[in-house]
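Teaching assistant here, posting this on the class forum so everyone can see the example we discussed in section. The complex has two components, and the goal was to see what a joint structure prediction looks like when all of them are supplied at once.
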Amino acid sequence: MDNTTPLTFHFAVDGSDFSSAGEASVQVKKILRDIGFSADVIRRVSIAMYEAEINMVIHAGGGVADVSVSPESIVIVLTDHGPGIADIGLAMSEGYSTAPDNIRALGFGAGMGLPNIKRYSDELNIESELGKGTKITITVKP
Amino acid sequence: MVRVPKLQSLSSLEVRNMTEYKHSVSLDVSKCKGCITCLKRCPTEAIRIRDSRATIDSNRCIDCGQCIMLCPHKAKKAVNDKLSDIPFKKKYVIALPPPSLYGQFANLDDVDYLLQGLLDLGFDHVYEFARAAELVTEYTRQYLKRTDIKHPVISSACPVVTRLISLRFPYLCDNIIPILPPMEIAGQIAKKEAIERHPELHESDIVTVFISPCTAKTSYVKNGFAGGSSSVDYIVSMSDVYFELLGVMKKERTPLPVSRVGMVGMSWAVSSGEASALLNDHYLAADGIENVIKVLDDLETGNYPFLDYIELNACSSGCVGGVLAVENPYLAKVKIQNLKRYLPVMQSRYANEEISSMESRYSAEQTVYQPAQKQKSDMLTAMTIMKKAQIVYSELPEFDCGACGSPNCHAFAEDVANGNAVLSDCLMLGRNKKENKADDNNGSDGK
């Protein structure tokens, strides 16, 4: 078997069931643990992916997550067909949130999602088009 | 065709870098039917059915006792010392009864009768686990006030939980309070006090016997977690002692020993008792191994920002729900509630220095992350196996029936990739999932 092709995983993130939000991140955490990545890498990946996954559920009604793993990098691509981000610069600032009240009541919506993803990842790329959707690419390098 | 079970050889290979972990769950081969009850419910997927009997991967087993509790054929057994193993005549023997034992008896309104019963069984002395538990409570209250610690603090009392964290939760290892569990502290104090009372005794003349509600405490002692050797010498099953006690607890005369347990120590028998005694509202208490795993998963992702303390009990309802306990845990809870009613909050007083110095006397080694799986050095191998498992999985029907001897299709795919099973072990292989989906779609056509 070829060692150079990365290991890939595909997850459908259900936007209709908020209680299951975050499950894909837990799956990825388990996979990384089984492969033997260091605790720090696992921590960074699971926080960054968790935040992005929650965002997708809160704002975009779900989407898909594609994860590719190699010893050199872990790349997570989250794609949704939600409303898109109007001002990415503003969305990246700490404390800015457009989460509805019912979501805030659960403790989310502190405006730390995207800033946290940036903090815990090595590369973050956001492509978004209003009315079309958002594609977030997170790279974590062990 | 008889296949040689490869799982055993695998586990012996995998443990070459670690010392073999001694478990306290054993299997009576003659009783095991090879059914899938334990296979499907093992919380760490440590069980496989090979050659019509269950095998346990000792690297994954956390001694939670679920399989013992669930086995319909009573093939899974707890391994404990028997009362007859204890050198009652040769040594000074101290019983360490936990408060969960107090909750086992109907009509027990005074713990002293139970303690007297233990003396009547041949023990020379009784030291109550609850007293050590109260010390730990006092210590934890002080510890939580420190500013240099990681929050939330996780209790070190349940050995299943600490082992689970060391196997699967690298980022929570340093959340565990670095103090020995009450059982260990109880053993140490009991021995120290015995020598103070009887200066003629040498340390080697004294043995301590813990009366355990669970299998995990046995493993804890056997594996010498407490920085080398445990202060507990024998562990006997609570159910064994229960039946012996029934015979001697006649309430015919006034008992000699006087229980020193308070409400705080008594509360440790049931879930959330330990945490509520901290007089700090910012705590979470979860019980039952599956709930515990769920909480730890969430905790590791950082979902509990405002908590100071986490109490986790692998057994439902807490220690009264242990597999070696006799009484229905909910009834035991009621009994503990009743016994607590007229107790002082605590019966022992400790000076502040005594509590703060516990750190040096009873400090536990930091829990270390020791995953059951591969180490970093063979990450590429791990990934290659995972790729192989993905390909195998795509062939499988996703029924998760367990008939192959692995707990679900994912685990089976991994087993095949690791060379511990062959694809043809899947009895449902012919029933390809794609065909099933096609069948579903065609269902309304009435073919």
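For the discussion questions: The radius of gyration of chain A is 15 Å. Chain A has one domain: 14-140. Think about how each of these relates to the inputs above.
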